[in-house]
Write a structure and sequence with these properties.
The complex is a heterodimer. By secondary structure, chain A is an alpha+beta fold. Chain A contains 20 helices and 38 strands. Chain B is built from 12 helices and 9 strands. Classes of the chains: A alpha+beta, B alpha+beta. At the A-B interface, strand 2, helix 7, helix 10, helix 12 and helix 13 of A face helix 5, strand 1, strand 2, strand 4 and strand 5 of B.
Chain lengths: ~800, ~325
């Protein structure tokens, strides 16, 4: 809501500086978003009359003008085609800085002195007109600051009005708050209307067919008006609050809208068929052309203002082209109504049409202010357009809106706020904003809010008014009683924190990417058509196709982030994201939201070249991260990395599925070459993905202690040469499957390839650790077991000892 | 005799100097002077022969000399030992350390953790809720009916007529109150979504919601808890103010402003010359919300608050472009 300080002063004695005003308004809940001095930039620009226009001796398109401010003459070189003798225009003198940033100096233009510049609207930052100098009205006094001619300087405030405060969508409404702040009276505009014409009932009629949608409809008729431009005071005031002047009658409706917050509509009475108004609901698909020239298709709940034939306006939103005020309008019917807020809001939304009018109706105008605004408009229209009003007004208001009487318990209010306000203070605060307070019982005030405060319907609404008007800073800081018992910690959340910290420690950087992705990105993952990930939650009204569906996988975001970084020459990537994916679930209305963990690695393993950091990361790096992360969950079942069940977006030759006790919980390896191509990736990416929730569900709380061994271990190595097709894990599993209770541990310590083993062969070294808990093992004992193990492996895998 | 002892000390000192921290020579010197049959031992042996009245002084002198020589030789030997360990080429201590690779947590995560920790210390428990949410929880149960202008405050992504991407973390309040009885003391961090994308808005962002409900929780308590939070988050000396505002699910409602962390309150571009920065919204839980979850507003009261994580992270780290958070450029991520 734009307000000007001058306009406010019409209604209230402002005893505050602008700074104080801004602060006090903000602290009663009317936040001042912006403030500026109107025309502050026009200092040094004056009004001047062009006395003489001559040709410039050295330039065909320039003119040499003599310009006067009434006391002094200036020579100005001017190139505008519309400069003529006798016109009055803005003159910017040397020293003025124009909005474009140029500071004027006296200068010679093609050899002739120019002491300043005659300006266009655009050059002064006051309009779009750049075709020539700005020709001011001929009655403009010359030699005055241009700012004065334009209505004078003023302070313009942009006040942010919260949706509950419809009463503040007007100058008067804000003045009321200022009056409360300053403890000074609010002066309503005085309305004196001399009714001389025939009674309105003999000329016009109003029928409201839908009183629910239109609880109150009032009208006045003015006959014999003359349509013309608005007087300066009117057009300038409107311009100051950003409203373009149209003609005197329309301007008055806008003026009263701004002043009182009541939207009005002015109809050309002679273009209303049957001289009657009918308020009814539209028929579904009924068509109507609004005054912006757009033909609109209406809905059956759109409220229409009709004449004897058909619609003339969409109620509360916009009028029609046909009944608009035009230059030959002689009789004006002024509409002032209270429309049901939800109905206007619904229609405005469905039609995609928001206006100053709909904005106020949907928040709720003052049902009692309808008449005041109507009379005010009639009075002002006669002032600016002549004519005489018909006697009386039409006021269809079958079910008057009654404001409730509210009980305010002083004690409870103080307890609720944590304050110690006196009953009289509370009553005073409420009275300052025109609430009627009965304080015959000082502990239980009875309060009647005015009709313009339709947001005040409960005791708590009064509590809020008291708190804001007496000041939030008067509420002392206190501390709630604590039970002293701290809340339990969510184990899932804690595990996420631990995993993040761990991955950070491994050198991975955390990502936060958008939860919505493009359908196209999902389709690049080569998923089979029945894969649930290809059937994401769709957003009905996405901003763009790029963000149209909720992700079912972290992989697209991960790849796109990797790509963004590669494009910006961040070539060594170690990234992860731990966040939710969204999988639609058949029966339930809401999708399942699972936490997934995914990561990507590329480039150098260690980015310090000094320490041999030139080596590129490989499968073992990313698998190592996964293995260490899994360790954090203390799982005691069987983890497997297999070439089966590798997801389709991963390279089947260079990736593994991860399973736990036979259930797939993730994957690790390289991005599939076709996916690389689809995403236009310039580099091989190693990725991993874990279903975090699934892993978490299998988490054990903590490890159990095992006593430290009292007897030494015996270590034996086994180096075998096998076919390349034998994974290192298989012989290891075979050995473990013997359930040798003296075998404490086994690990792969070497994988080696050499021509001497022959084509397609490799050597694997296993280190086996034997130990007994109750004694030292003898060599013989170990040798016999180990020999058995070796024999088993050699036989099973057709291997030889190296 | 004293004369001879002093001469011995001089000679020994010279010998030690000449030895130049050579441990072998030093060992010989030690044997020669301090050994069991060494020169000093000889003087001790001869002490009884000295005139009785001189004996205490000579004895004292002998002891002093002995201590000095022991000390000098031992120091020289230490130096000798150190020299022996000296590398053939000089050891360069300025060579860069072999730093273990350490990643970074996203600044949003870090800020979220910091906020959560403050509230955990105040006895609040973290609770989470769905991001794809029923219209009922996101709006209706929070006293934002359909066709209400308050819906304009939040441009919404719809999944269907009744399902939205949550526009704030406030629905978690309702979900928790539906399941539990007071007292309640929770925070609810998470992702939120609004259909808005420009320099100062991203369609996804993060919030932390808070709710405290119990007997006689007052607006003063709201001020107390949030003042503690602001002081712990931004510093004990930061000024703050509670400013009336409007949220459909709280009444009275308050925005909390802190003194601009950039200009200290004198007015700058970041605070739009006001000297204040809005950092969170709060208020006393509206009775309508309590009624929706079956609480009796005559019996329990409470307050709720919510804040944007990105906003706080931007102020804390001096980040001037919101979109950087979701670009995830390593040059950005590595700074935190």
């Amino acid at each position: 809501m734009i307000v000007t300080v001058k306009w406010l002063r019409d209604f209230v004695d402002l005893r505050l500086s602008v700074e104080e005003l801004i602060d006090r308004l903000t602290m009663v809940g009317l936040e001042v978003d912006a403030v500026h001095e109107r025309f502050a930039h026009l200092e040094g620009v004056i009004t001047a009359r062009v006395e003489l226009v001559r040709k410039h001796p050295n330039a065909d398109r320039l003119r040499l003008c003599e310009v006067t401010d009434g006391s002094r003459r200036y020579q100005i070189v001017c190139g505008a085609p519309n400069v003529r003798e006798g016109v009055i225009a803005p003159l910017a003198l040397a020293g003025v800085t124009l909005p474009g940033g140029v500071t004027l100096r006296e200068a010679r233009v093609r050899g002739e002195l120019s002491e300043g510049m005659l300006c266009s609207q655009k050059e002064l930052g006051l309009g779009e007109d750049a075709d020539g100098i700005w020709l001011l009205p001929q009655d403009t006094p010359i030699g005055a600051p241009l700012a004065d001619a334009l209505g004078g300087t003023d302070t313009i405030l942009d006040v942010s009005i919260t949706p509950n405060r419809a009463d503040c969508l007007s100058i008067l409404g804000i003045a009321r708050e200022v009056a409360a702040i300053c403890n000074s009276p609010l002066r309503y505009p005085s309305i004196a209307l001399e009714e001389t014409g025939p009674t309105i009932d003999s000329l016009a009629s109003v029928t409201v067919e839908n009183p629910a949608g239109c609880p109150r409809y009032a009208a006045r008729l003015i006959q014999g008006v003359t349509i013309g431009p608005s007087p300066q005071w009117l057009s300038k005031r409107l311009e100051a609050v950003g409203v373009r002047s149209i003609n005197n009658i329309v301007d008055i409706t806008n003026y009263v809208l701004m002043e009182m917050g009541q939207p009005l509509h002015a109809f050309d009475f002679d273009r209303l068929a049957g001289h009657r108004i009918v308020v009814r609901s539209a028929q579904e698909n009924e068509r109507f052309t609004t005054l912006d020239g757009v033909e609109r298709t209406l809905f059956d709940d759109t409220l229409l203002i009709c004449d004897g034939q058909g619609p003339v306006a969409i109620a509360g939103i916009m009028g029609g082209l046909d009944s608009e005020i035009s230059s030959d309008t002689r009789r004006v019917l002024i509409e002032s109504a209270y429309f049901q807020p939800q109905s206007i809001r619904r229609s405005s939304k469905k039609l995609g049409l928001r206006t100053e009018s709909s904005y106020r109706f949907e928040r709720g105008v003052d049902p009692e202010g309808v008449i005041r605004a109507l009379d005010r408009a009639a009075q002002l229209m006669m002032e600016v357009g002549g004519g005489e009003p018909a006697t009386g007004r039409i006021d269809v208001y079958p079910n008057p809106i009654v404001m409730p009487t509210l009980a305010l318990r002083v004690d409870r209010t103080n307890r609720f706020l944590g304050t110690d306000f006196k009953s009289s203070e509370m009553a005073g605060a409420l009275r300052s904003i025109e609430m009627q307070v009965d304080d015959s019982d000082p502990q239980a005030l009875r309060v009647n809010p005015p009709a313009f405060r339709q947001d005040v319907v409960r005791e708590v609404d009064l509590t809020e008014e008291i708190a804001r008007l007496l000041g939030y800073d008067r509420v002392p800081v206190s501390y709630p009683k604590s039970s002293g018992i701290s809340a339990p910690q969510d184990p899932h959340l804690r595990m996420r924190e631990e995993v993040r910290a761990l991955l950070q420690g491994f050198g991975l950087n955390e990502l936060v990417t958008y939860s919505f992705i493009s359908r196209q990105a999902l389709s690049k993952l080569r998923l089979p058509s029945d894969d649930p990930r290809l059937h994401p939650v769709e957003i009905m009204n996405p901003i763009s196709d790029e963000q149209a569906v909720m992700r079912t996988s972290l992989i697209p975001g991960l790849i796109e982030t990797a790509q963004h970084n590669l494009d910006h020459r961040n070539e060594d990537l170690k990234l992860f994201e731990l966040s939710r994916v969204f999988i639609p679930s058949g029966e339930k209305p809401l999708p399942d939201e699972h936490y997934h963990l995914a990561g990507v690695m590329a480039g150098k393993r260690y980015s310090y070249p000094l320490y041999g950091g030139e080596e590129e990361v490989d499968y073992t790096d990313v698998k190592g991260v996964v293995e260490q992360t899994m360790d954090l969950f203390h799982l005691d079942g069987e983890m497997r990395y297999r070439t089966e069940n590798v997801p389709p977006y991963m390279d089947p030759w260079r990736s593994a599925s991860i399973s736990y006790n036979g259930e797939i919980i993730g994957a690790v390896g390289q991005v599939h070459p076709e996916v690389e191509k689809a995403f236009d990736l310039k580099k091989k990416l190693l990725i991993f993905e874990l279903d975090f929730d699934q892993v978490f569900a299998r988490k054990r709380h903590h490890p159990m202690y095992k006593p430290l061994p009292k007897f030494p271990s015996v270590v034996r190595d086994m180096a075998i040469v096998v076919d390349e097709s034998v994974p290192v894990q298989e012989p290891l599993d075979l050995i473990l499957s013997q359930h040798e209770h003296l075998l404490e541990a086994i690990e792969v310590f070497d994988v080696y390839r050499s021509a001497q083993f022959g084509e397609g062969k490799k050597s694997i070294g296993y280190r086996l650790v034997y130990r007994a808990l109750d004694r030292s093992l003898t060599d013989e004992e170990v040798n016999s077991i180990h020999t058995q193990m070796v024999k088993k492996v050699l036989n099973t895998y057709d291997a030889s000892l190296r | 005799m004293e004369e001879n002892i002093r001469t011995l000390l001089d000679t020994a000192r010279k010998d030690i100097a000449v030895a130049r921290d050579d441990s072998k020579i030093l060992e010989q010197i030690r044997v020669r002077y301090l050994g069991r049959k060494g020169e000093l031992a000889q003087f001790f042996k001869d002490l009884p022969k000295a005139p009785p009245d001189r004996r205490p002084d000579i004895g004292k002198l002998l002891n002093e000399v002995k201590i000095e020589l022991e000390q000098q030789i031992s120091e020289a030997l230490d130096r000798a030992g150190a020299q022996q360990n000296r590398p053939k080429t000089p050891f360069d201590v300025t060579v860069p350390g072999r730093k273990p690779l350490v990643g970074r947590l996203h600044p949003i995560t870090q800020t979220m953790l910091e906020i959560s920790r403050i509230f955990h210390r105040l006895g609040f428990e973290t609770v989470e809720g769905p991001e794809v949410e029923l219209d009922y929880y996101n709006f209706e149960a929070l006293n934002i009916p359909k066709d209400h202008p308050a819906r304009d405050m939040q441009d919404t992504f719809y999944v269907s007529e009744d399902i939205v991407l949550r526009t704030h973390t406030s629905p978690i309040q309702v979900r928790v109150m539906e399941k539990r009885q007071p007292p309640i003391r929770i925070i609810a961090p998470g992702k939120t979504y609004r259909r808005d994308s420009d320099v100062t808005h991203t369609p996804m962002f993060h919030q932390v919601e808070g709710l405290m409900v119990g007997d006689n929780i007052s607006f003063g308590d709201l001020k107390g808890i949030l003042t503690i939070f602001v002081h712990q988050m931004f510093g004990q000396n930061i000024g703050l103010r509670f400013r009336p505002s409007f949220f459909p699910f709280t009444e009275p409602s308050a925005e909390v402003d802190i003194q601009c962390v950039i200009c200290g309150g004198s007015g700058c571009r970041v605070c739009s010359q006001t000297g204040w920065l809005e950092i969170l919204g709060s208020g006393m839980v509206d009775p309508e919300v309590f009624k929706m979850v079956g609480y009796d507003p005559e019996v329990v009261t409470g307050f709720a608050f919510g804040m944007g994580i990105e906003r706080i992270a931007m102020l804390k780290y001096g980040i001037d472009d919101l979109r950087l958070f979701f670009e995830n450029d390593l040059r950005f991520l590595r700074q935190f």
